[in-house]
Write a structure and sequence with these properties.
Chain lengths: 282, 247
């Protein structure tokens, strides 16, 4: 479609907008880029402490599995930022022409940059630093045997990007017409956090028998695939019985890829159809 | 000689929706079976004209006659409700100086941002940077954050970036009156330069002297329609005479 060709032609602008967003975020802050890593690491630390000392946790070395928090954060922040991408740039949109779809795309790429740093740290931590430093991490979890499944993280990340972009386009369009969409999205994302296996392992979901419905959720499927591609399943015991392990969920992962592509397709078509009306509304 | 701008039977109607701006309010209204009502506002009615390459066209008319809407349509901000618009070549729009300027960035950083928004890539901007800085005449402030600039400095920098973009078509909305007389003369000189180079200039202004000085041709928009279209002197005279007390 000609819209896609036009977006490609405007790539210097996309780059410039991403540059602008990244620069802004770090201009006045101490630590700068390190902050994008520190924040989720602190979250992991807090949840680890919570699970070790307060909540009854049946999982050994759970903090390693918490690294999917980085991917979740990418999803959450992409949607929240993408939602307001158009309205925050209203003055620009009303004065100069450029393909409007660039705005949610640029915010997504900015967030991808932060995720890339976190991801690099994850890989480094798992496969290079190995058993160092602490008693929280035990050999047997990693550096796991370098299995081919590990490369699955690449398509996972790709389809997560596809999904986030699709949602960003839909939400950006909605937020132009209904200004409180951004608050609804923030609230829903907070709840949605509990529908993905971060605070609890997926094995418990399987034991409860809701696995099949649960995994229809593309975000859950992508996160589990990401987790199990990098790490062997954990040892989960409940009431003295070890729960069956869950490996890479190939079926649900494929479904998630299809769903993500559809969301992007719908989002793009919707956005393109309403792009002129959106400007008149700003 | 191909035409730079072609406007065929263009009308623009804005549908002002008395629509609720939040999901919450919309939900309450729907529960009471009240749906969004639309009011239509005709901004432009059946406008047609063609501008050959290199012509300078001035647009005059009272406030609310549709001048800015016409410019926005030419700049592809809005899509015409009916009719067709063709604009050929690279378009630079000066609908607001410093569009895209971010207060937290320095003058130089904003030159790059603004330049890319107007259609250049970074390499091109780097080549023109000395010329841009020179024209803007804000000297050592280039490394200060724009939030500390005076409005005059912002307009000078914005104008400087826009003129160095080297467009084929330049659309200007009432921003020619910027800066002091000295800077204005520089601007007029630049516009003369553009005219020599065959750049099509299309601009809107209330300042009759500016229009008379620069335009070859003038369009007079009155009450959302094209009332006159002809050589600058003639149309300006028509406009002036229609504003005499005995009319």
């Amino acid at each position: 479609m000609s819209s896609l060709a036009e977006i490609w032609r405007f790539r210097p602008l996309i780059l410039e907008l991403v540059r602008r967003d990244l620069k802004l975020r770090y201009k006045n802050s101490i630590g700068g880029i390190a902050w994008s890593l520190l924040n989720p690491l602190m979250q992991i630390a807090v949840i680890t402490v919570l699970m070790k000392f307060i909540l009854p946790t049946p999982v050994k070395d759970y903090s390693a599995y918490l690294f999917i928090l980085f991917l979740w954060n990418f999803f959450q922040v992409s949607l929240a930022d993408g939602c307001v991408a158009i309205v925050n740039n209203a003055t620009l949109v009303r004065k100069v022409y450029f393909p409007r779809a660039i705005l949610p795309l640029a915010t997504l790429l900015g967030n991808l940059f932060h995720f890339a740093i976190a991801f690099a740290f994850t890989i480094l931590y798992f496969f290079v630093l190995g058993t160092y430093p602490s008693h929280l991490f035990v050999n047997g979890v990693y550096p796991g045997p370098l299995r081919p499944e590990i490369f699955l993280v690449l398509p996972v990340i790709f389809f997560m990007i596809v999904l986030c972009l699709g949602f960003s386009l839909i939400l950006a369009y909605l937020n132009v017409f209904y200004e409180d969409v951004r608050f609804i999205v923030t609230a829903l994302l907070q709840l949605f956090f509990y529908a993905v296996p971060i605070l609890y392992p997926i094995e418990q979901v399987k034991a409860k028998g809701v696995y099949d419905i649960y995994m229809l959720n593309p975000v859950a499927a992508l996160l589990v695939t990401y987790q199990r591609a990098l790490l062997l399943p954990p040892t989960v015991t409940q009431k003295g019985v070890q729960l069956p392990a869950v490996g890479v969920p190939w079926g649900y992962f494929s479904l998630a890829c299809v769903v993500s592509t559809c969301v992007l397709g719908v989002g793009f078509l919707l956005f393109e159809h309403y792009k002129w009306e959106m400007v008149e509304r700003l | 000689m191909t035409n730079s701008i072609e406007v065929e039977n263009v009308s623009k109607t804005f549908r002002v929706m008395h629509r609720e701006a939040s999901v919450k309010a919309a939900a309450f209204k729907w529960l009471r079976f009240q749906f969004a009502r639309a009011e239509e506002f005709v901004a432009l009615h059946d406008i047609s004209f063609t501008v050959p390459r290199g012509q300078t066209v001035g647009v005059i008319g009272s406030n609310g006659s549709g001048k800015s809407t016409l410019l926005a349509l030419l700049a592809r901000i809005y899509r015409p409700t009916t009719g067709h618009i063709t604009v050929r070549g690279r378009v630079a729009t000066l609908l607001e100086l410093g569009a895209g300027f971010h207060p937290e960035f320095t003058g130089i950083e904003n030159v790059f941002l603004n330049g890319v928004i107007l259609g250049l890539d970074r390499a091109e901007i780097e080549r023109r940077l000395p010329a841009i800085i020179d024209f803007a005449e804000i000297g050592e402030f280039m490394d200060t954050k724009v939030k500390h600039f005076s409005s005059g400095m912002i307009t000078r920098l914005g104008f400087s970036v826009a003129v160095h973009v080297e467009p084929d078509v330049l659309l200007v909305d009432e921003v020619l009156a910027v800066g002091d007389v000295q800077f204005q003369e520089k601007c007029y000189a630049k516009i003369e330069e553009f005219k020599q180079r065959g750049v099509t200039i299309f601009f809107v202004s209330h300042d009759m002297r500016a229009i008379a000085r620069v335009s070859d041709r003038v369009l007079w928009l009155d009450n959302h329609a094209l009332r006159a279209d002809g050589p600058a002197a003639k149309v300006i005279e028509e406009y002036d005479s229609s504003h005499q007390p005995d009319h």
